[in-house]
């Protein structure tokens, strides 16, 4: 093999070390650049490019009630941001944004020089891409390590994300002070308008803020803010975005702040908390989704009713107790749709406080229509005027007693409910069966572990919530149908896609006749029974309830009113959060009854509520009960008749209720004889008296609804 000697040129020999150094530097530069690129891929977590966005709770009319957020941000696409707003930020932050590849070498060199002179990190030469990298992926400490990572991330972004998209991310991540992230939130806060409507000077002002959001706050420091804004305009002139004449004119303008102070609405706190709970429990939205996912949640609140109920809940006269701290709840639902219009989880709740609407408590006698009377009337053998045993009876170790200590022996279902009799309610539950009753309660959404007769009186181990009661009582005003109470009407995701829309799923619980019969009876509770407290002139049906205090004899622990109008179903609870011998109620169920009537009276002034309930088609009406009179003024006189020789006239004062039947009895040896009857009148003529024979008569009032007689009148002796 022949070898040929290759001669190295002399000039190469002379400059070989320089060539080696340069080549090495080039290799190292490429290696460094490659390292920066690889490192950037590791630093950039693309999941963080999905920006946190505030969720909004709003009314059907689009009125914003509140935002839920970790960072108060509304993401806006770059296409909605005017060019002059983009230019303002580019001019002040990164004039060569569209020219560099993520790092501005000139600006960086200048910053490095000044850092070296000061021997510390004193100046930044960051591009918009670098600022975005720092905001999304890194900490804000001023160290060389962080700066290198920032460069790595910026180079990676520039190679993988379009310039316009980088600018979009940047404008949506900037912090503007006052808890505002992103240009849309800042635009709404400072100018009460979307970013798409911002003028050039308004955009320039927003571009002025990121350097020092608090220092340049235009509300607190308008002079500083204007000076900084004018610098932005000057930079726009230098970058060719405006002319000299335009710059002068723009710098003469005032700030144009339109920051309307948002109305404080403490009366919404409980409702908003309820919405959040419903979103989590009913629709499966996590905490992170709610506070970062950018959802739009449309709710059914009626702000008039919500405000009115909050005002009434502040009135101490409706919450008398042994000590301060009497609490209460108020819940009102549209009976037709199931939409929750007002929700007060406490008398003066702050956001995040205990929401007592979701707390279980013993309901007392408000359970009677649900656990006893409704299920019983669904059976053919019972009507509102079926008679119940009202006596002090024992069922094993359980002996229910009437609250007033009096018993009627026998009483109709109607009057038992109206007067809230305990003994007869328990007797009836024993007759229809606990399992039969619990089957209804389960369908109403109350799956109780209790298996005793105390269910009739609301004596439960864990109790029920106001929501349970409103859901259940809705069946009476709506032909026996139940639907789920809800505050959320629709939910949209951050892209505006509908992800939930409430669709009612009615379930038949009671038959329509039962529902209407209960409605009529509960009307009488309000007008003549235990729900008479307070004043409300329009249609209202409902039931009171109270529970015995465990430590203080004859005092109340929990007090309730649950009822409905032709428009609404609602509940009120009054009580203490703690239960001890120092905390008890002084007014029993009268307190929640008064609260409900006061709220409805005020709502009526705004809404014009109905005067009466409308009887549904296909059901029979239920007449009110008959009160039999006590007759003690029976009188008898003799007279001659036209066809008979002698007759007697019996007279007495009749009851105002002309449905009362008066049975006339003649005293006989053995069994007295009923000789006649008259309805609604106070006179009866006895014809064909026997001559020379004395006879004794008396009157007994009779109730045709219950087929029962009252007490005999005084006796009258007719003598010849």
| Strand ordering within the main sheet | 2-1-3-9-10
**Which strand-content bin applies to the residues?**
15-25%
Low-confidence stretches: 27-31
Question: For the terminal residues, how far apart are their CA atoms?
Answer: 172 Å
CATH homologous superfamily assignment of the domain at 74-252: Biosynthetic peptidoglycan transglycosylase-like
Keywords: Carboxypeptidase, Cell membrane, Cell shape, Cell wall biogenesis/degradation, Glycosyltransferase, Hydrolase, Membrane, Multifunctional enzyme, Peptidoglycan synthesis, Protease, Transferase, Transmembrane, Transmembrane helix
Protein name: Penicillin-binding protein 1F
Transmembrane segments: 15-38
Domain Glycosyl transferase family: 62-236
Short description:
This protein has 720 residues and is α+β, with helices and mostly antiparallel strands.
SSE inventory with pairings:
Layout: H1 10-43, E1 55-58, E2 64-68, H2 83-93, H3 105-118, H4 128-137, H5 144-160, H6 163-173, H7 183-191, H8 200-208, H9 222-238, H10 244-252, H11 269-283, H12 287-292, E3 296-299, H13 303-313, E4 327-334, E5 340-344, H14 368-377, E6 387-390, E7 409-412, H15 413-418, H16 422-432, H17 434-443, H18 466-477, E8 481-482, E9 488-492, E10 498-501, E11 507-508, H19 512-527, E12 541-548, E13 556-564, E14 568-575, H20 590-607, E15 635-639, E16 647-651, E17 661-666, E18 673-679, E19 683-687, E20 695-703, E21 708-709, E22 716-718
Parallel strand pairs: 1-3
Antiparallel strand pairs: 1-2, 3-9, 4-5, 4-14, 6-7, 8-11, 9-10, 12-13, 13-14, 15-16, 16-19, 17-18, 17-20, 20-21, 20-22
Helix pairs in contact: 1-5, 2-8, 2-9, 4-5, 4-6, 8-9, 9-10, 13-20, 14-16, 14-17, 14-19
